[in-house]
Design goal:
Blueprint lengths: L1 H6 L6 H17 L2 H17 L1 E3 L5 E3 L3 H22 L6 H18 L8 H11 L6
Antiparallel strand pairs: 1-2
């Protein structure tokens, strides 16, 4: 969050920030492979420049694989949970595991590592990050 706060301008343009995030998700989910590759390359370039120190003095880098994994799993867990809760046709266990596994493709290209391939692994990783989260 320190990287977002210090480098994105989301406070002055929250809708623009949301639009850019939505563009990434839509393009990597529904776009052609060429379009997805371009958006991933653009974001990797941005991530290489985002570095700093948070309010506790801890250094961060937007291209840190551990932080990228957190962003990825928090995102897909949220989408999965919302779909399961509000869809008229929730995913089966096999479909949900396929969603988790396929969502790893753009995340890995961004630099995230050790990604979950099933919903059970996703839930375990969310729990593993809990000690690092701040209120």
């Amino acid at each position: 969050m320190a990287g977002v706060a210090g480098h994105s301008g989301f406070r002055g343009d929250p809708w623009g920030r949301l639009q850019r995030t939505s563009e990434y998700i839509a393009t990597t989910s529904f776009g052609t492979e060429a379009h997805a590759e371009r958006v991933v390359a653009r974001i990797r370039g941005i991530h290489r420049r985002v570095r700093g120190t948070d309010h506790l003095g801890r250094p961060y880098r937007a291209d840190d694989p551990h932080l990228l994994r957190w962003v990825h799993i928090a995102e897909i867990h949220s989408f999965y949970a919302a779909y399961q809760a509000y869809s008229g046709t929730p995913l089966s266990r096999a479909e949900a595991d396929e969603y988790v596994a396929r969502s790893n493709i753009p995340a890995a290209k961004l630099g995230a590592t050790d990604l979950p391939t099933t919903v059970a692994e996703l839930r375990d990783l969310i729990q593993a990050y809990r000690p690092e989260l701040m209120p």
